[in-house]
């Protein structure tokens, strides 16, 4: 049993990356809640801990037998992980925020008479999320990440002290973004467009869902891996 109920959610995802897909299906928060134990998280959801731990181990065995290669970021240098976070997640988030913003405004105008109440809620929530994420990404790229890189190079304690202050603020911002995403899930019925919705409507909700999934992995890499390296 490689995976057990006492392990932190973030640790489980590091050991078995595809567990994130199972956690997504179960609505288990492994990003902002990455420091929680697997057992506690499943119990809080009222789920069968023993059965799910068994499933995770079975899927892990299949993963190992398939000889799938993956990169265990816990064994890499912080600068390598930072580069991956920016290239893979920051750039994706910036692009998707711009595209979703335009699509959401379009469907709000076109479908206002039939779905105005829902779309106005989505529009407001997304607007808040967009502002917070854009500011958050800039603060990481201009402040936090350079501090981590400087500490990796010099091991100067003054950088470490500054980093830990930024980490607390960054994790709080992660929590705030996570709360908005949970509200968006509720309003959109887990990002499911209304029956008979047009292609653009469905595309907008699909993109919101993809943004959420990527943010989960993004936040996990920071909260559960990068910040533990300091």
TrEMBL record:
<feature type="domain" description="Hemerythrin-like">
    <location>
        <begin position="84"/>
        <end position="230"/>
    </location>
</feature>
<dbReference type="Pfam" id="PF01814">
    <property type="entry name" value="Hemerythrin"/>
</dbReference>
<dbReference type="InterPro" id="IPR038062">
    <property type="entry name" value="ScdA-like_N_sf"/>
</dbReference>
<dbReference type="InterPro" id="IPR019903">
    <property type="entry name" value="RIC_family"/>
</dbReference>
<dbReference type="Pfam" id="PF04405">
    <property type="entry name" value="ScdA_N"/>
</dbReference>
<keyword id="KW-0479">Metal-binding</keyword>
<keyword id="KW-0963">Cytoplasm</keyword>
<dbReference type="GO" id="GO:0005737">
    <property type="term" value="C:cytoplasm"/>
</dbReference>
<dbReference type="InterPro" id="IPR012312">
    <property type="entry name" value="Hemerythrin-like"/>
</dbReference>
<protein>
    <submittedName>
        <fullName>Putative scdA protein</fullName>
    </submittedName>
</protein>
<keyword id="KW-0408">Iron</keyword>
<dbReference type="GO" id="GO:0046872">
    <property type="term" value="F:metal ion binding"/>
</dbReference>
């Amino acid at each position: 049993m490689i995976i057990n109920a006492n392990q932190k959610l973030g640790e489980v995802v590091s050991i078995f990356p595809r567990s994130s897909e199972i956690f997504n299906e179960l609505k288990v928060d492994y990003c902002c809640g990455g420091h929680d134990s697997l057992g506690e998280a499943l119990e809080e959801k009222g789920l069968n801990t023993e059965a799910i731990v068994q499933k995770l181990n079975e899927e892990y065995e299949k993963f190992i037998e398939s000889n799938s290669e993956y990169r265990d970021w816990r064994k890499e240098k912080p600068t390598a992980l930072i580069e991956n976070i920016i290239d893979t997640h920051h750039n994706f988030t910036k692009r998707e925020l711009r595209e979703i913003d335009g699509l959401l405004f379009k469907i709000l105008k076109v479908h206002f008479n039939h779905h105005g109440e829902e779309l106005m809620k989505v529009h407001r929530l997304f607007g808040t999320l967009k502002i917070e994420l854009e500011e958050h990404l800039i603060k990481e790229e201009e402040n936090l990440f350079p501090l981590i890189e400087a500490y990796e190079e010099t091991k100067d304690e003054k950088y470490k002290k500054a980093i830990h202050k930024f980490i607390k603020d960054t994790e709080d911002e992660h929590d705030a973004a996570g709360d908005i995403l949970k509200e968006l899930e509720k309003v959109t019925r887990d990002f499911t467009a209304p029956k008979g919705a047009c292609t653009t409507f469905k595309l907008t909700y699909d993109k919101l869902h993809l943004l959420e999934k990527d943010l989960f992995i993004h936040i996990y890499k920071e909260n559960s891996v990068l910040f533990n390296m300091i």
